Amino acid sequence: MALRNQDKAWHRCLVCAKAFEREASWLQHMERHENQRQQRRKRLRDEALDRELSAKLPRTTN
User: Fold this and answer.
1) Which of 14, 25, 35, 61 is disulfide-compatible with 20, CB 3.0–4.6 A?
2) Mean pLDDT of 30-57
3) Region (Disordered) spans which residues (predicted)?
4) Do 16 and 32 meet the contact criterion of CB atoms below 8 Å apart?
5) What local confidence, expressed as pLDDT, does residue 59 receive?
6) What does the alpha-carbon distance between residue 11 and residue 1 come to, in Å, rounded to a whole number?
7) What order of strands is seen across the sheet that includes strand 2-5?
């Protein structure tokens, strides 16, 4: 999403609303958001798998 301000094109992040004058900087920034999203999805999958496995394990008493 490019915005115009004082004859400059600004690229605004749709995730955090940060603005960048250079498209390359904006693309690099958006890549960081994508990496964060992938890490979050992996963490959620891992947590779900841990819950599933712990539910299948027999409970022990001390």
Assistant:
1) 25
2) 94
3) 32-62
4) no
5) 76
6) 6
7) 2-5, 8-12, 19-20
The structure's pTM equals 0.65
Rounded Cα distance between 9 and 2, Å, is 6
Beta strands in 1-62 (DSSP E): 2-5, 8-12, 19-20
Residue with tokens 């999958």: 45
Beta pairing class for 19-20 and 8-12: antiparallel
Could you report the per-residue pLDDT of 10-27, keeping only the tens digit for each? Answer: 999 999 999 999 999 999
Any idea where the domains of the chain sit in the sequence? 11-53
- Amino acid 27 reads L
